[in-house]
């Protein structure tokens, strides 16, 4: 028995025992000796074989499809986190994930960027800029205020100002595409992602060429050079933070570099 299959079985068993039978339409009688739902009841709710479900809880090495996992997730009324954990343990990709809520930067994130003296901003799932401070607006120019939905990729590839602002634009732009591809790897069939990529293909030959390379790189911090029209050359260190409870959001801070002795 593999560790993952053992964990999957114990996870489902624990969830089942937390379910109140009455809430799922089953009578609670004197003869019920099982805490929560019975295995047969879960199988009935998920429209799967009781024997097959029992084998899952027992950790047996049997085939568990994504469709069956979806039915179990719906039957047990799993939330987004529980559902993701179920599919992860089973080694399956969730083709019907819980629809993401509209991306809005929480007020406390806006407060953080407002309190930060240097450029700071918050990016969403597909790098829409959801919040920023005055220093970021000063650095990046008018696009933050004038674009209805400012997006970092559209800025880099479609705004002429970005090509003069970002030092060594081509190298940085190529890396940004590789980081974005890696960052969006779990949503390759999302219509919103497909629409964004298609629009970038149409507006930027460079993006189209970089995207076809299939480079994937994890996003990391480091030195970023800018050629600002008023402040001149600026070297800033980029640091990116992700929220535990909203992993799609990224808090990006640009700080002054410390001169070495």
From TrEMBL:
| Top-level lineage group | Bacteria
A molecular function (GO) held by this record is: DNA binding
Gene3D superfamilies of this UniProt entry? Answer: 3.30.450.180, lambda repressor-like DNA-binding domains
Secretion signal: which residues?
Answer: none
Question: What SUPFAM superfamilies does the record tag this protein with?
Answer: lambda repressor-like DNA-binding domains
Q: Which UniProt keywords apply?
A: DNA-binding
Protein name (database record): DNA-binding protein
Biological source species: Silvimonas iriomotensis
């Amino acid at each position: 028995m593999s560790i993952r299959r053992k964990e999957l079985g114990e996870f489902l068993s624990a969830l089942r025992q937390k379910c109140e039978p009455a809430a799922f339409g089953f009578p609670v009688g004197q003869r019920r000796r099982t805490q929560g739902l019975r295995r047969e009841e879960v199988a009935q709710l998920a429209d799967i074989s009781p024997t097959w479900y029992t084998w899952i809880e027992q950790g047996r090495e049997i085939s568990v499809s994504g469709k069956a996992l979806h039915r179990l997730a719906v039957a047990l009324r799993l939330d987004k986190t529980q559902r993701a954990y179920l599919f992860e343990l089973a080694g399956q990709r969730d083709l019907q994930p819980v629809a993401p809520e509209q991306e809005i930067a929480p007020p406390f994130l806006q407060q953080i960027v407002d309190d930060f003296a240097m450029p700071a901003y918050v990016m969403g799932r597909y790098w829409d800029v959801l919040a920023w401070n005055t220093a970021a607006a000063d650095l990046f120019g008018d696009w933050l205020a004038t674009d209805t939905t400012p997006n970092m990729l559209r800025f880099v590839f479609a705004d002429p100002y970005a090509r003069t602002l970002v030092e060594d634009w081509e190298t940085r732009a190529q890396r940004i595409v590789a980081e974005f591809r890696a960052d969006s790897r779990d949503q390759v069939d999302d219509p919103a992602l497909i629409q964004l990529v298609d629009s970038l293909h149409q507006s930027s030959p460079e993006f189209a060429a970089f995207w076809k390379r299939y480079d994937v790189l994890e996003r990391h911090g480091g030195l970023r050079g800018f050629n600002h029209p008023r402040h001149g050359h600026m070297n800033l260190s980029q640091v990116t933070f992700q929220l535990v409870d909203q992993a799609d959001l990224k808090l990006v801070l640009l700080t002054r570099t410390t001169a070495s002795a």
